[in-house]
Amino acid sequence: MLTNMTKCSSLGGRDRLADPSDPAAASGFRFFDLSGRTLLITGVTRGIGRDLLPGLLDQGLNLIAVSRGREQIERIQSEIGLGENRLRFFECDLADPEAVKSVARKIAAEESPLDAILHNAASILRRRFGDMDEASWGELFQINLMAAATLTRLLLPKVRQSRQGRIVFTGSILNDLGGGCLSAYAASKGALAGLTRSLAHELKGTAVTVNCLIPGAIRTESDEASPAIDEQLISWQSVPRRLRSTHLLGPLCLLLSEAGEGISGQEITVDGGILHPVADPDYQSKLM
Questions:
Q1: Cβ atoms of residues 171 and 121 within 8 Å
Q2: ∠ at Cα 111 (213, 104), nearest 5°?
Q3: Angle (CA) 207 211 216, round 5°
């Protein structure tokens, strides 16, 4: 089912959209040239997408959120509370190719502008390669790759009308690292990296840049706290802190802004400097 839900409360003239003391909501910086621009973002009911909403709105962006989960979407609308022109939702199951085409055509037909797309939605399935059947591969690739490709293809003419068009895919460090029991997920993210480079070249001579944001081990607000897991993940990084969704906000805003107009066809990795075990200085020092 495809529904456009746009009821939001008034912004009420506030300068900030969230308590600046809340690290998950306040950005702490501002790209002034993003104000008034429109970004479409997929996958916002939980995880990184949900965490990024307040910070993106705080930059002055108008958001078109495409996601499934009507009740979750309505709750988010109520929690954030924005004027209807700042935050609009389209309910869409990205696993359904026809639903993706339908929502894309509906947005393409609107008179309002579209300056950028952030393909954030993803599905992850941990299963051994031999246990993955064709249906599982097909659904995962539909959500992670084909939905992004379809939305981009059908909305690209609209994005090209922008003076500052931006396409941002969301990849994964597993494209480079690989991952046991994550073959299909890593393969789908690798395909997005290839699409990023190829589309950037194909859009030569336009104002549209295409990049891929690569998150590392990100702890989202919906994740259950686990000090043991946090400690383990931090030990694998050069940066001694647990990464959160807000660590992606600055690099993302750079790619969306005028300051990022010289960046295209690139993978921007935010992983805290994940170390290969052989490269770890603690390991190497034992060999000295």
A1: no
A2: 50
A3: 155
pLDDT at 153: 98
Q: Which CATH architecture has domain 3-11+22-285?
A: 3-Layer(aba) Sandwich (3.40)
- Amino acid occupying residue 271: D
Rounded distance between C-alpha atoms, residue 217 and residue 215, angstroms: 7
pLDDT of the residue at 25: 45
Q: Determine contact, residues 207/161, Cβ cutoff 8 Å.
A: no
Instruction: Say if CB 260 and CB 167 are below 8 A apart.
Output: no
Determine the average pLDDT of the residues in 187-216. Answer: 97
Strands 209-215 and 266-270: parallel
Q: What are the sequence ranges of the domains in the chain?
A: 3-11+22-285
Q: What is the mean pLDDT of residues 275-280?
A: 82
Q: Is the distance from CB of 116 to CB of 169 less than 8 angstroms? A: no
